[in-house]
Design a protein that fits this description.
Blueprint: H1 2-18, H2 23-36, E1 42-44, H3 50-55, E2 73-75, H4 80-93, E3 96-100, E4 119-123, E5 130-133, E6 138-142, H5 147-157, E7 161-162, H6 173-179, H7 186-189, E8 196-202, E9 208-209, H8 211-214, H9 216-222, E10 232-239, E11 241-242, E12 247-255, H10 260-270, E13 278-285, E14 288-295, H11 299-309, E15 321-323, H12 325-330, E16 355-364, H13 370-382, E17 386-392, H14 395-399, E18 415-424, H15 429-442, E19 467-468, E20 471-472, H16 474-485, H17 489-499
Parallel strand pairs: 2-4, 3-4
Antiparallel strand pairs: 1-2, 5-6, 6-10, 7-11, 8-9, 8-10, 12-14, 12-15, 13-14, 13-17, 16-18, 17-18, 19-20
Helix pairs in contact: 2-4, 10-13
The protein binds flavin-adenine dinucleotide (FAD) and 2-acetamido-2-deoxy-beta-D-glucopyranose (7 copies).
The site of one 2-acetamido-2-deoxy-beta-D-glucopyranose has 6 residues, from loops.
């Protein structure tokens, strides 16, 4: 009892006396911003536009409720100097900053705090230019761009160039590249973060650095080590990659009666060993499995490949559509029903605020048995509000050594599972309970020690940092960090200690500095 009380007191003190600066320093912070950044770029809570700017890229209504701790202000920089000024003002006055690019964090950590804390948000939405260098096959893209805008800029410049990244066009480049970037080109070319060749960031001292300035350890960490931990990345130089003038796509659904269990069971070994040019993901929802594929080639060659590699699916030329790679990105790979969607949908940054989501992830290295797939399908009888998406690894992504970039889920991984439940509005107790129970059930079928997880499918249930002496502890970070980064977590924590030893850039799940404390 006394122990509990002491812990509660310690928690109270660490929350309120250390990390929350006095009101005076909040005022000083705002005055400091006012001196260095044009007033129309700074939205205080008292500004009439504050709420509009705050929700502008909030994706999920459950993070826009009374339980959420909101920022003191939102800064919307239009050049690097504004970002540097915000960091210097924050450091001087003990006010932390959270950075937001596309706002798609699954826990909303780019704009809300779970714990009581005074913080500002640097929202990069106004820094979103993209410049393609066709002769070099590279581009510089600012963090505030969406991946839809990036796909559009590249594909319109040259329909045979592309960049590997995720499916949802409103994802922000800043958060997405910071955590990896899993998508339909990764079996051929790897993650987004595997194809970054330079970057510009503002570090915890407010300095603007490129790759040469930050050094190779710091540059390693920002390519997949998770957003927020290592500074504010303003822009990324990326290597563009070749795609053919047209690609072939299909989506085929199989119900239980049509053999879904057998076909998914077989897919687990086929999907990760197909030629690199062919990526076939699976969505399981209700009593149905949907197989969605993109092939860097023609329909006739795809039909032949499928007949040879995966006859169980009975794919025919009638299932196949040929289009430019850019057109295929506009489909978002959820259904072919929206075929012919104009490419301009990629430029729509609005995503609506009506559906809440909770997500989780797992990795599979040993195929799940047919009997277990029967059980998994029976979970989807219990409720229709959930789905899982299976994304095959293997190919190039599996061949990259597991310490080359922070993403460690490489050799031997068959696929990643993304779990999602949706519900209208903000209150979703029932679907969330279903998800948690289902995730517990799945534990026996997926990787263990650690149970691997993907940082971009952020999940606070797997752990949150404890803060001691105003610094997140390495031990508390290991609990969730080794699940996201495995053997790379320690190196990330060493880099953090070099570049941000006082843990200025932090949230509930940022890499803590590995400090060698004197006792
Ligand atoms: C609908 C949906 C679909 C998705 N599909 C995919 C997918 O296909 N593949 C995949 O890999 N992932 C996918 N994700 C996950 C997605 O990659 C992550 O949520 C990603 O972090 C979003 O980036 P953001 O910039 O939009 O998010 P934000 O919420 O802005 O940021 C996410 C995190 O990164 C930090 N951060 C943001 N910008 C910067 C910056 N410039 N510098 C440093 N840190 C920064 C934030 O502080 C926060 O901690 C999906 C998510 C959603 C909601
Ligand atoms: C906050 O709570 C009050 C009552 O408790 C409720 O009326 C209001 O709608 C809530 N606001 C949001 C944004 O959820
Ligand atoms: C593209 O890169 C090349 C080689 O670095 C450079 O000479 C050229 O000026 C760049 N072009 C553009 C449009 O930036
Ligand atoms: C593609 O980008 C280059 C600059 O690298 C530019 O010169 C060229 O005009 C662009 N082409 C198209 C079709 O936009
Ligand atoms: C695939 O086709 C074969 C023969 O055409 C048929 O016997 C089989 O049932 C089909 N399988 C599925 C899953 O539709
Ligand atoms: C952009 O997407 C939103 C949400 O899906 C939709 O409501 C809106 O109509 C779209 N805007 C345009 C211009 O297409
Ligand atoms: C299933 O979903 C419905 C709403 O779609 C909800 O009312 C019900 O409680 C859910 N059941 C379970 C077991 O989660
Ligand atoms: C890479 O894989 C090897 C062999 O499985 C393992 O021993 C090592 O710890 C892994 N490294 C990382 C960074 O996860």
């Amino acid at each position: 009892m006394a122990m509990l009380r002491r812990l509660a007191l310690a928690f109270f003190l660490s929350c309120f006396s250390c990390s929350v600066p006095s009101l005076a320093s909040s005022d000083d912070f705002l005055q400091c911003l006012a001196k260095k950044i044009p007033s129309e770029l700074v939205y205080k809570q008292s500004s009439s536009d504050f709420t509009d700017v705050l929700v502008s890229s909030i994706r999920f209504p459950n993070f826009f409720t009374n339980t959420t701790v909101r920022p003191l202000c939102i800064v919307t920089p239009t050049d690097a100097g504004h970002v540097q000024a915000a960091v210097l003002c924050g450091r001087r006055n003990g006010v932390r900053l959270r950075v937001r690019s596309g706002g798609h964090d699954y826990e909303g950590l780019s704009y809300r705090s779970v714990r009581p804390e005074v913080f500002g948000v640097v929202d990069l939405a106004k820094l979103r230019s993209i410049s393609v260098n066709e002769s070099e096959s590279t581009a510089w893209v600012n963090s505030g761009a969406t991946i839809g805008e990036l796909y559009y800029a590249i594909g319109k410049n040259n329909s045979e160039l592309a960049f590997p990244a995720g499916e949802c066009p409103t994802l922000g480049v800043g958060g997405h590249f910071s955590g990896g970037g899993v998508g339909m080109l990764m079996r051929k070319y790897g993650l987004s973060s595997d194809n970054v060749v330079d970057a510009k960031l503002v570090n915890a001292k407010g300095e603007l650095l490129d790759r040469a300035g930050m050094g190779e350890d710091h540059f390693w960490a920002i390519r997949g080590g998770g957003g927020q931990s290592f500074g504010i990345v303003l822009s990324w130089k990326i290597q563009l990659l070749h795609v053919p003038p047209t690609v072939a796509v299909f989506s085929i659904s199989k119900t239980l009666d049509q053999g879904a269990v057998d076909i998914v069971t077989r897919w687990q070994v086929v999907g990760p060993s197909l030629p690199d040019d062919l990526t076939m993901r699976v969505k399981v929802q209700g009593q149905e499995a949907m197989f969605l594929a993109v092939y860097l080639g023609t329909c006739s060659s795809l039909v032949a490949t499928m007949g040879r590699e995966f006859p169980e699916l009975n794919m025919t030329s009638a299932d196949c559509r040929s289009m430019t790679y850019l057109e295929s990105t506009a489909l978002s790979f959820t259904t072919l029903a929206n075929i012919g969607t104009p490419e301009e949908v990629l430029l729509n940054r609005t995503s609506g605020l009506d559906i809440s989501v909770e997500g989780k992830s797992d990795y599979v290295r040993r195929p799940i048995s047919r009997a277990a797939w029967n059980d998994i399908f029976s979970w989807f009888k219990k409720n229709g509000s959930g789905l899982i998406m299976l994304e095959p690894h293997g190919g190039f992504i599996g061949s990259v050594p597991n310490a080359t970039t922070p993403y460690p889920h490489r050799d031997g991984v068959l696929y990643v599972i993304q779990y999602l439940v949706f519900w209208p509005g903000a209150n979703g107790a029932a679907p969330q309970t279903w998800l948690h129970d289902f995730y517990d059930f799945m534990g026996q079928h997926v990787t263990a020690d650690p149970r691997e997880a993907y940082v971009n499918f952020r999940d606070l249930d797997i752990g949150q940092n404890a803060v001691v002496d105003d610094v997140s502890t390495f031990e508390s970070g290991q609990v969730w960090g080794e699940r996201y980064f495995m053997g790379n977590f320690r190196r990330l924590a060493e880099v953090k200690a070099q570049v941000d030893p006082t843990d200025y850039f932090r949230n509930e799940q940022t890499t803590p500095p590995l400090l060698h404390r004197r006792n």
